[in-house]
Amino acid sequence: MNPNLIEYIKRYVNISQSEIDLFNLYLKPKIFKKKEFLLKARQTCKSRYFITKGCVRLYYIDDKGNEQITHFGIENWWITDYESLINKIPSKLFIQATENTEILELPQVIFEELCFKLPKIEKLFRKIMEKTYIASQKRLEYMFSQSGEEMFNHFITSNPEFTQRVPQYMIASYLGMTPEFISKIKKNKK
Amino acid sequence: MNPNLIEYIKRYVNISQSEIDLFNLYLKPKIFKKKEFLLKARQTCKSRYFITKGCVRLYYIDDKGNEQITHFGIENWWITDYESLINKIPSKLFIQATENTEILELPQVIFEELCFKLPKIEKLFRKIMEKTYIASQKRLEYMFSQSGEEMFNHFITSNPEFTQRVPQYMIASYLGMTPEFISKIKKNKK
């Protein structure tokens, strides 16, 4: 198994080598070239993805035809469209590689079987979901309480590598701003 | 055990009467009068709460001294401050009963033991977290894509009973609006 995923799992649950080996049987390594899609809108999302290399973005097309980025994912993050995966409904989201990306795919169809064989994986994903939810709550709180400029500064301070890896217009979309607004903030800083 | 909680659990996992009885041993019934606090800011949240009767609000005091409501909870909802509970840090939130409220408290200190004895409860809370996360993502999406008026109309259509049970200024706070803005929307409707 990918050493980063082993380290990741061990942060949440005590797991033995034989259990890691069993979990590994359920993971399918896949490679996506930059701009390739892991998922397209109207498809039903069928897997959770652990990113071992690269970067992806999750976005939807809004009523006005604009791309609205909801999330990014980089190395050592699990990403999926939970609404489509759990409710088994067509996704509104596109998941697209913004760099050449390598992932480990955990298909939902075998997820319950895995949890049955290895209850620690159930615990792992319960804890991952709690952390993911906490992050989403903090994001909501920032949207309530911070100005656009504060949100941008908070984002680049908390996620310095994104500003190197992701074009500015994508960061603008994630923060619900126009690229022009971000250019203005940066200009004011100078 | 409260029949609504049994029904709630059965929506997520297959559970026997003896397992329900075991789970029930971990739950403490509590009563809060209207305006009483389940949690105050600076306390560390130590439990998950299942509401059997009544209504609570979760809110924080922002930099300007205003109350910002982050969530409501009514019958058959689990609520807690996940950030404080999971990270074992002082809460920024107040959890206050907005009606006379009855809850079942599941203390975190015995939660892991319960999950060990009853792995189905681990599964239950993994699934609850997924649904809770999906709801928070939809809320974020509405904040991105809807106007204030659309958000208000969507809220009252999706949660008709809240408008009966919760004062208008609390709904305004939850939606990040002023009470005056909501009065204006209502006036325009007429």
Give the rounded overall mean pLDDT of chain A: 93
Count of alpha/pi helices of chain A: 9
What proportion of the residues of chain A form beta strands (DSSP E)? 15-25%
Which oligomeric form is depicted?
A: homodimer
What structural class do helix, strand and pairing data of chain A support? alpha+beta
Biggest chain-to-chain interface with counts? A-B, 32 and 32 residues
Number of strands of chain A: 8
3D structure, described in words:
2 copies of one chain form a homodimer. The first copy, chain A, is α+β, with helices and mostly antiparallel strands. Chain A has helices at residues 3-12, 17-24, 82-87, 111-117, 119-145, 148-158, 160-165, 168-174, 179-189, and strands at residues 28-32, 37-39, 47-53, 55-61, 67-74, 78-79, 94-97, 101-107. In chain A, the strands form 2 sheets. Chain A has a 4-stranded antiparallel β-sheet with strand order 1-8-3-6, with no helix packed on it. A 4-stranded antiparallel β-sheet of chain A has the order 2-7-4-5. The mean pLDDT of chain A is 93. At the A-B interface, helix 3 and helix 5 of A face helix 3 and helix 5 of B.
